[in-house]
Amino acid sequence: MPRHEFRPGRAVAGLVMLALAGGYAADAAGAWRAPWAFFVSVLVGGLWVAATATWWAYRLRRRRAGRSASTENTVAPASSSGSQAMR
What we know:
Layout: H1 8-29, H2 36-68, H3 71-74
């Protein structure tokens, strides 16, 4: 059993940040020359993909939770339904 649930949006955002850091390092070392607009477009595009992955994962979790919920767990317990006398 995993200790926590998988968050694909965070994984995508982390990979985008690692790619940007590698690109900046290569640019600073002189191994690769890239315009600043390239890095901005990679950042914006990567964050958009991460947000989309987060949204899809949220919808999937909601759909799974809706299927697994039973009617027994959604009904109020007998002690709070008002059928017992108040003291």
